C-alpha cells in the first residue's frame, strides 16, 4: 500500500509538470468556465440551474479523452513498458496510478467550478451535495476508463488525436449541455446516448442518481474494465 501511495504521489507531481494534462485538466477547462459561464448565464439565464453540471461535463470529457490518453501511450507504446518488465513492476501499476492521478486532478478542477459558480455567476448549487459528488465520481471513473482504452489501444499520436476528438466533440455537442437534446434529430440524440457525457450530465442533476441513469454508465465501466484487463494480460504475455 505504501508503494502504491508513493507511486501515486510521484505521478501527481509528474502530471502537474505534464503540459498535456495541465492544459486539459486545469487551464483550458477553467478558462472556458470563466469566459463561457458569463456568456451562458447572460444569454440564457435559465442555465444558472445547470451551469455547474454543464461545465463539469466539458472538464471531465476533455481531461479523460484528450489529456489522459497521450500519457498512457507514451508509457505503453514505447520502451518505458520494457522498463516496467525489466524491473518486475506489473504493467497495471502504471495504468492504475495514472488513472487515480487524473481522477484527483479532475475532481479538484470540478470542485473549483462547484465553489466558484455561485460566486461568479449566481449559479444554483446542487440541492443534495453528497449524491452529486457520488454522481461526479461515477462520471469521472467511466470517462477515464474510456480514455485508458484509447491510450492503450492506439500507438500513433496522429490517430490518437483524431480518435480523441471523435469522442470529445460529440460528447459536448450531443450531451445536452449546450442546448436541449430534444432539439436534435432523433438519430443524433440516439448517437449522443452512446457517450458517457449524456448520462453523466443527467446523473449530476438534482434527483438524477437513480437506476435509469446508472445502468448504461455501469455497463460501460464493466466493458472497459474487462477490455483493459485483457489488453494488459496480452502485453504481459
From TrEMBL:
Keyword tags: Membrane, Transmembrane, Transmembrane helix
Transmembrane segments: 21-39, 51-68, 89-120, 132-154, 166-184, 214-232
Domain called ABC-2 type transporter transmembrane: residue spans: 8-205
Subcellular location(s) per record: Membrane
A single Gene Ontology CC term: membrane
Protein name: ABC-2 type transport system permease protein
Membrane topology, as annotated: Multi-pass membrane protein
InterPro entries in alphabetical order: ABC-2_transporter (IPR052902), ABC2_TM (IPR013525)
Pfam families, per the entry: ABC2_membrane
GO molecular function, one term: ABC-type transporter activity
Organism: Catenibacillus scindens
Phylogenetic placement of the source organism: Bacteria, Bacillati, Bacillota, Clostridia, Lachnospirales
Amino acid at each position: 500500500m505504501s508503494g502504491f501511495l508513493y507511486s501515486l504521489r510521484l505521478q501527481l507531481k509528474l502530471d502537474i509538470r505534464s503540459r498535456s494534462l495541465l492544459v486539459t485538466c486545469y487551464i483550458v477547462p477553467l478558462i472556458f468556465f470563466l469566459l463561457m459561464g458569463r456568456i451562458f448565464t447572460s444569454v440564457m439565464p435559465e442555465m444558472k440551474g445547470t451551469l455547474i453540471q454543464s461545465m463539469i461535463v466539458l472538464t471531465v470529457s476533455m481531461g479523460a479523452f484528450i489529456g489522459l490518453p497521450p500519457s498512457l501511450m507514451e508509457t505503453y507504446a514505447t520502451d518505458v513498458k520494457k522498463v516496467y518488465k525489466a524491473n518486475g513492476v506489473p504493467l497495471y501499476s502504471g495504468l492504475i496510478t495514472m488513472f487515480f492521478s487524473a481522477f484527483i486532478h479532475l475532481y479538484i478542477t470540478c470542485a473549483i467550478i462547484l465553489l466558484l459558480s455561485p460566486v461568479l455567476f449566481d449559479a444554483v448549487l446542487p440541492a443534495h451535495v453528497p449524491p452529486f459528488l457520488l454522481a461526479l465520481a461515477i462520471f469521472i471513473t467511466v470517462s477515464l476508463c474510456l480514455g485508458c482504452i484509447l491510450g492503450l489501444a492506439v500507438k500513433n499520436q496522429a490517430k490518437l488525436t483524431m480518435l480523441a476528438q471523435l469522442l470529445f466533440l460529440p460528447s459536448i455537442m450531443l450531451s445536452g449541455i449546450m442546448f436541449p437534446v430534444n432539439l436534435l434529430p432523433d438519430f443524433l440524440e440516439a448517437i449522443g446516448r452512446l457517450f458517457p457525457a449524456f448520462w453523466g450530465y443527467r446523473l449530476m442533476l438534482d434527483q438524477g442518481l437513480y437506476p435509469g441513469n446508472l445502468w448504461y454508465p455501469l455497463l460501460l465501466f464493466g466493458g472497459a474494465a474487462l477490455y483493459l484487463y485483457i489488453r494488459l494480460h496480452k502485453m504481459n504475455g
